[in-house]
Amino acid sequence: MTITIKDLPKISLNEWYAGTHWSERKRIKDVYKLIIRSKNLPKFTEPCEVDYLFTFQSRPLDCSNCVAMLKMIEDCLFPKDGIKVVRRIGITSRKGIEDTVTIQIL
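^ that's the sequence the OP posted. Answer follows.
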């Protein structure tokens, strides 16, 4: 299954942990939940592998800095995101026409 989500807030892992107050982190996570859950996507519970392609209209983040966004997305899509369900992830980041994340669940 392939899922594309637009307009999620761009959050760098460096920014996330560089002293951002917990209340601001919670607010951002709530925004992610609202956007992703509004798509009425299924909850995935079967073992799978997941590839994330992040595209950014300006100043793309490097792959490892996309991890904060990836984790918030994963928490919304996978009720139990342990090793028994999410067996592998792949992250790609590049410049694009708009800010999107395309998620391929294999």
